[in-house]
C-alpha cells in the first residue's frame, strides 16, 4: 500500500478514481482525471513549505540508495567490510556500470521493514561503515574509476560502541582523504543528509541534491530540542534552518539541484533514477575534460570558499 502525506490526499483520491475508471475501461474519464491530477500536482508541489519538503525527504516510499543502485547499475558486485572490524550494512559499496561507464557507487541505506531497518541501523553508519566507504574509494582511485556517492542518513550512529571505535576520527579521515582523492567524484543527497554522517561521503568534485532532499548540521527535532527544549517545534526549526535544496543552492553550498519528478521520487522511481544517472554521466564527462590538476584545484577552491563572514 502506498503511503500518502497529509498534503497528498487530494492526489490520492484522484489516483484512486483513475484506477477505478481504468477498471471500467472508461478512457474518457481516465483522460479527464489525468488532467485533474496534473493540475493538482503542479498546484500542490509548486507551493511546498520547507517542512513539507522535509516530510518528502523522509517519505517511507522514497527510493533508498539500494533502489537506485538496482535501477541504474548493471553487472554490479558488492564490496564488504572495512578490513579492520566488520561489515557495516548501513553503507553500501558497489562496483559496476552506469551506462558504459565503470563506476564505484557508495551509498547510505536506511532499510525497509522492521528487520531490515535494524540490520541497516536505520541508515546510521558506524565508524567501520565510513572506513569501508574509504576503502572502496581508494580502490576506485587506484584503478582510475569514478565514484558516485549517495547520501541518505539522519546522521552517524552516536552509540557507545561507535564512539569507542572512533566515530569522529573515521568521519574526519574521510573528509581529508576524499578531499585528496585523485579520481572523479560526484556526491548526491537523495533524501536526508544529516550532520557529519552525510559529510563523510559528501566531499566531491560535484555536490548535488535532489529536488526534495534536505541537508543540515542537525535534525530539526534536535535543533528545536536544543533551542526551545521542545522537539514538537520541529516545523519552526525547519523553516529557520535553510535545509532544502533551494536554500542551499541560493547560499552556494551545493553545485546543482537534480530535477526529480515534480510529484516526487516516491511516486516515479524510474524517472528519478534516470535523473540521477543522467546527471552523473553528464558531470563525469565535464570532469574528464579537465586535467587532474585543474580538477583538484577546482575541488580545493570549492571546499575552501564555502561560507562567508562580515566585519
Give your account of this protein's structure:
The chain has 14 helices and 8 strands. A hairpin with a 2-residue loop joins strand 2 and strand 3 (101-108). The protein has 311 residues and is an alpha/beta fold. The chain is globular and about 60 Å long. Strands 1, 2, 3, 4, 5, 6, 7 and 8 form an 8-stranded mixed β-sheet that branches.
Kindly list the characteristics that best describe this protein:
311 residues; alpha/beta; 2-enoyl-CoA Hydratase, Chain A, domain 1; eight-stranded mixed sheet; globular
Number of domains: 2
- CATH architecture term of the largest domain: Alpha-Beta Complex
- What name does the CATH topology of the largest domain carry? 2-enoyl-CoA Hydratase, Chain A, domain 1
- What would you call the structural class? alpha/beta
User: Quick one: overall form?
Assistant: globular
Question: What is the percentage of strand-forming residues?
Answer: 15-25%
CATH class of the largest domain: Alpha Beta
